[in-house]
Each structure stands twice: as C-alpha cells, then as structure tokens.
Amino acid sequence: MRNPAFDTLPPMSGRPVLELLLGDVVRLRRAHPCGSSEWLVDRLGADIGLRCQGCGRHILLERRLLEARLTDFVSRGDVSMSAAVSPRPAMGA
To answer: What are the structural domain ranges in the chain?
Structure first.
C-alpha cells in the first residue's frame, strides 16, 4: 500500500552525509554582514548551530543548506567532544 504523503518528497541524493564535528570552523560561500566568512559549529542535528567568528552572532541552518553553502574547513573540531554528545543506542536493544 502506498502512502500519498511520501509521494511528494524528492528522492534522496546518493551523496554521503557531510561529517561535521563540534568545534569545526567552516568557511561559507558568502560573508556575514560583519565581514567574517568563518563560522564555529556549536550544535549538531537536523539543524546546525553556527556562531560567527567576527561578531559572535548565532544562527541555525538546515544541514542541507549548510552543505550547499560550505566552501571548506578552516579547522576541525574534537572527535571525542562530538562523540560525548552523540545519541547512544538504547539499552537492551
């Protein structure tokens, strides 16, 4: 049986998900109005939290928008810090 709600969704791309870590500093395609184009990743999930390295402004971007606007990594964050906040599997599962 087909679910009509899923017929409206676009097909998933074959691209792998971009590996982001807490503490990454990324450069985006366009500069922030303060002049800085570097952002610190401070929240992970479906929405990615970014803090401007120039003025400290905090924004949330959808993951796919961030992937489209990202040009490169300035520096990489700490793997152990990201692992500490990642969801753990349920007990007994």
So the answer is: 21-75
